[in-house]
């Protein structure tokens, strides 16, 4: 039975580190690296504020409100680095970094890289380019457009079959239209729909790692007895990239749909030519024909330069010698190369390949059949012996069983990463619990202070109401009573003739016209004053009180 739409589930397994640009970077203002474990922790502004105390927030605010120059940037870098322990609890999941990146961070964070002759400071931005990710859960994602582009290159190469250009003036678009015998509307790739491949890897291991991209010459060039380095290597150029780690078997799942138009009358003005209605087997064959040839050619050339990490190389070669190669040949799976630093050869077709080779400053570029250098994955900038290629991905079509050898290699031989992940998550959870405890205590203290402030407010209101109900005479008596109470509370004894006695005496002098009730109330307070200062038996005092007696 023929279906108009034929769906296939594709399982993607990265065989080497993979980076697909997201036009975003980790910058020292939104990440820190834990010195002990070399773990990168990304965070957003909300997490930063949650992790800092009020005083620390004010310090940060003072820095960012300063002059927006390189000095401010280095201060921000240093501030986050110095407060990294408080930020870890609120950061995203840790990402392991290469040992060289950890050292580079420790050496340069918050410092100026160099000063130019004109005094200008060159800042260490320490940017790490992020790989493409799902904005909902921050897991890595293989965009369908990247996958489809790689498949298109392989199909075009198969059609061209190594033929040279018939007309050197022919442009790329014209060339592709000639090969596909169609224009935009009749492009056969419109019959192939490929969805984004979502992350399905284990949560026990990091999905990504931060690595160096370093440049190395493909062939040794010796001049005056010295091995010549590539221009990028000479200038110590490198990139810091977040890469999808090749540690997860079938780490991504996506779909491919073929539109079958056999039930529709062929019209070359509206539909692609019938010979370009590819089956899934034909697509797999074209991809394997193009990418496997490139894979082996590159692998052997890198082996000659002793660039590749030995255990990775051994495992790959063993895989290919066993069942995997048969499955590739049978069209059950196919190889792709996608993402950054896949190399110019993976983007161009055999027969018409002409790659621009940049020369030294002031020299015109040259055009060659193959590049002069590779960009490779490294743990250290100076590494020449333990490197990995970028971007190799195995794609399985509707797999009914697992490739046990591949699965064991990728999942069981990276136990150190599983242990690392558990340790970092434990640490992060512990710091989070500590932070939550600090926050809870802070909230409890705030609640106590609020209750105390409320009690004081109620007391003040009651005092105001009490005083509002008093007569002028009672207010003066109350003032004397409060002075007495203050003295009693502080236990400051006075002699007769002191300030308290003097205030009492002056008040009694004003009571001639007071009503009897007020005089009686003042008399009680006056007796307490005399008792407090020990003047109950004093004759002058007794005489003074007579003015209050009825």
UniProtKB/TrEMBL annotation:
Ranges for domain CRISPR type III-associated protein come to: 12-298
One Pfam family recorded for the sequence: RAMPs
Give positions of region: Disordered: 452-471
Write out the biased-composition intervals (Basic and acidic residues): 452-467
List the keywords (alphabetical): Antiviral defense, RNA-binding
Molecular function GO terms recorded:
RNA binding
Keyword Transit peptide listed? The answer is: no
Q: From which domain of life does this come?
A: Bacteria
Cell division found in the keyword field: no
Question: InterPro entries this protein is in?
Answer: CRISPR-assoc_Csm5 (IPR010173), RAMP_III_fam (IPR005537)
**Single biological process term from Gene Ontology:** defense response to virus
Please give the family membership noted in the entry: Belongs to the CRISPR-associated Csm5 family.
Role summary: This subunit might be involved in maturation of a crRNA intermediate to its mature form.
Listed name of the protein: CRISPR system Cms protein Csm5
């Amino acid at each position: 039975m023929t279906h108009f739409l034929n769906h296939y589930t594709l399982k993607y397994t990265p065989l080497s580190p993979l980076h697909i640009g997201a036009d975003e970077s980790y910058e020292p203002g939104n990440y820190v690296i834990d010195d002990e474990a070399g773990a990168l922790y990304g965070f957003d502004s909300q997490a930063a504020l949650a992790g800092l105390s009020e005083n620390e927030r004010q310090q940060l605010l003072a820095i960012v409100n300063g002059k927006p120059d390189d000095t401010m940037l280095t201060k921000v870098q240093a501030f986050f680095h110095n407060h990294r322990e408080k930020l870890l609890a609120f950061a995203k999941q840790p990402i392991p970094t290469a040992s060289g990146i950890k050292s580079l961070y420790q050496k340069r964070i918050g410092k100026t890289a160099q000063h130019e002759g004109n005094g200008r400071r060159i800042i260490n931005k320490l940017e790490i380019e992020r790989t493409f990710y799902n904005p909902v859960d921050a897991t890595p994602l293989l965009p369908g457009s990247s996958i489809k582009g790689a498949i298109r290159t392989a199909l075009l190469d198969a059609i061209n079959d190594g033929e040279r250009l018939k007309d050197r003036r022919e442009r790329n678009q014209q060339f592709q239209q000639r090969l596909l015998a169609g224009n935009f509307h009749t492009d056969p790739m419109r019959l192939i729909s490929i969805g984004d491949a979502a992350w399905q890897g284990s949560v026990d291991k990091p999905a990504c790692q931060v690595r160096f991209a370093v440049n190395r010459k493909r062939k040794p060039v010796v001049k005056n007895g010295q091995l010549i380095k590539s221009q990028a290597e000479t200038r110590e150029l490198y990139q810091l990239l977040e890469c999808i780690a090749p540690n997860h078997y079938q780490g991504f799942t996506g779909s491919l749909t073929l539109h079958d138009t056999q039930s529709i009358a062929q019209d070359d003005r509206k539909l692609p030519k019938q010979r370009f209605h590819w089956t899934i087997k034909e697509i797999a064959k074209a991809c394997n024909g193009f990418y496997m040839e490139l894979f082996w050619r590159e692998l052997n050339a890198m082996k000659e330069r002793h660039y590749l990490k030995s255990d990775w190389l051994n495992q790959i070669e063993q895989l290919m010698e066993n069942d995997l190669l048969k499955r590739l040949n049978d069209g059950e799976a196919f190889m792709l190369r996608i993402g950054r630093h896949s190399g110019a050869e993976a983007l161009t077709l055999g027969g018409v390949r002409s790659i621009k080779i940049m020369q030294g400053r002031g020299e015109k570029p040259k055009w060659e059949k193959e590049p002069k250098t590779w960009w490779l994955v490294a743990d250290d900038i100076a590494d020449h012996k333990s490197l990995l290629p970028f971007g190799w991905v195995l794609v399985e079509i509707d797999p009914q069983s697992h490739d046990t050898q591949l699965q064991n290699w990728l999942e069981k031989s990276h136990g150190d990463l599983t242990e690392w992940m558990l340790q970092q998550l434990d640490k992060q959870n512990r710091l989070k619990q500590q932070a939550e405890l600090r926050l809870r205590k802070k909230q409890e203290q705030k609640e106590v202070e609020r209750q105390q402030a409320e009690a004081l407010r109620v007391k003040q209101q009651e005092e105001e109401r009490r005083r509002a109900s008093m007569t002028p005479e009672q207010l003066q008596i109350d003032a004397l009573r409060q002075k007495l109470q203050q003295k009693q509370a502080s236990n400051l004894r006075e002699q007769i003739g002191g300030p308290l006695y003097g205030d009492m005496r002056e008040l009694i002098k004003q009571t001639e016209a007071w009503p009897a009730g007020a005089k009686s109330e003042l008399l009680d307070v006056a007796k307490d004053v005399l008792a407090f200062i020990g003047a109950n038996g004093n004759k002058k005092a007794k005489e003074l009180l007579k003015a209050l007696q009825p």
